Amino acid sequence: MRRSEISTLLFETPWPELRQYAVRVLEREKGSHVFVRGLVEFSNLCWRNCRYCGLRGENRALVRYTLSQAQILKAASVAVDAGVDTIVLQSGEYTIDPLWLAQIIDAIRSSHRVPITLSVGEQPEVAYALWKEAGAVRFLLKHETSDRSLYAALHPGHNLQERLDCLKKLAKLKYECGSGFMIGLPGQHPESLVDDILLARRLRVSMCGAGPFIPQENTPLGRSESGSVPMALRVLAVLRIVLPWANIPATTALATLDAECGQRDGLLAGANVLMPGFTPMGFREHYRIYDNKNRVDMAGVQAAIEEAGRTHALKPLWKTQSTLPKALASA
Ligand code: SF4
């Protein structure tokens, strides 16, 4: 599909027609199952200063935390008992002891029949390799925007190429890579959303998360307008059509701007993944990437799946044996 065709779909095709097209592709490529990924936000430490994010290092108003290994394993266990099919371990970007996280990955993988996804930002290649060896299979690293100047303006001291190089390293290590971007970022030209979709296709990502921008009050963009829910749904539908193989989440940001219907409408637009949170009480409120974050729980997930007329994916049979040398596998 050419750029002009994607642009027409995104900005001109009437919504009922676009949605029906996306649903036809979804049914053909993915069937009715919805994957449920359990999110454990294990640390809100971050050394970067992304201008839109409440976890930015310069945000002194945020209470910082890092869960212990035992707390992370407990949260993962609760998520598995609740029926998730994957554990997503997420944090800000900070100096993570590679062995510490490898032990956690190994312990979760050895105790539960679930694959593990990491979302911990740009890290040394040697750490990526160790975590892969420990059993992590997927890695989420959103490109956020394909507009190089906007990327540089929003991420002081960083550039888009570093991000893309990281995704290449992860692919070389045979991670299933996920990327994604925001809709309605201050300074974003609407046409650059077409480039975001094309970049995700060029990267052949296995997962692509696209959600509306939401401001966080303690950031330089704290007074900006949120992104539009209808445009976010259009982007999901076009992603489904252009990346038919990809797993596409109905994001928490969507569920935050439209608490009642965001998850369901995301599924109806072509998404096939939901991500309920399992970060323990007492910590989850400090993972404030943006304000008023909706805590998507399993009840909400089940309701959205039912209302959208879809089914929950079966849990995959997964390797349960430790691959780490015994001396390392102590978590
Ligand atoms: S977006 Fe990620 S890397 Fe940027 S400040 Fe937030 S947590 Fe850190």
Number of domains: 1
Small-molecule binders here are: iron/sulfur cluster
Distance between the termini: 48 Å
- CATH topology, by name, is TIM Barrel
**Order of secondary-structure elements:** HHEHEHEHEHHEHEHHHEHE
Secondary-structure class: alpha/beta
Any descriptors?
TIM Barrel, 331 residues, binds iron/sulfur cluster, alpha/beta, 40% helix, eight-stranded parallel sheet, 8 strands, single chain, 12 helices
How would you explain this protein's 3D organization?
The chain has 331 residues and is α/β, with parallel strands linked by helices. It has a single domain (3-309), classed as TIM Barrel (Alpha-Beta Barrel), CATH 3.20.20.70. 40% of the residues lie in helices and 13% in strands. It contains twelve helices and eight strands. Strands 1, 2, 3, 4, 5, 6, 7 and 8 form an eight-stranded parallel sheet that branches. Helix 8 links the parallel strand 5 (176-183) and strand 6 (207-212). The longest helix is centred in the N-terminal third of the chain and has 15 residues, at 15-29. Bound molecules: iron/sulfur cluster. Residues 46, 48, 50, 53, 55-56, 92-93, 121, 289 line the site of iron/sulfur cluster.
Task: Annotate the secondary structure layout.
Layout: H1 3-11, H2 15-29, E1 33-43, H3 69-82, E2 86-91, H4 98-111, E3 116-119, H5 125-134, E4 136-140, H6 148-154, H7 160-172, E5 176-183, H8 192-203, E6 207-212, H9 229-242, H10 252-257, H11 262-268, E7 273-274, H12 298-307, E8 311-312
Parallel strand pairs: 1-2, 1-7, 1-8, 2-3, 3-4, 4-5, 5-6
The structure holds iron/sulfur cluster.
Iron/sulfur cluster binds at residues 46, 48, 50, 53, 55-56, 92-93, 121, 289.
